[in-house]
Amino acid sequence: MKKVTYRKECKIRVVGVGGVEVTLPKLVIERAARAEGQTIEEFVKTHKLVHLFNDFTDFDAAYRFERIKETEEIEVIELDKVEEPKPPTLAERGEKPAPFNEMRRRLKEGK
Known about the structure:
It is built from 3 helices and 4 strands. It has a two-stranded antiparallel sheet. Strands 3-4 form a two-stranded antiparallel sheet. The model has no long low-confidence stretch (mean pLDDT 80). 25% of the residues lie in helices and 20% in strands. The protein is elongated. The chain is an alpha+beta fold. Helix 1 packs across helix 2.
């Protein structure tokens, strides 16, 4: 039986500070999803990619897909829907508002 090895070159991109990103060929994800009886969208929600490296002689790295354990479920948060935390109020900090004259004196003194 003849073995077929596919070769696909991918670009490496710098992301953020110290991050690097690589896009996997769609064929790889499609095959893994099909083997699990899932669509690509379902597969990426139920699996994670594990990089294997540092123990090979003829190549630098490999990867495999592992099912995400229920305790590891990843919650996706849309950043534009996240509210900024509000600073605590004086009451929450356990402080009382300064009397009006005290506030005016502090403003004049620049405190």
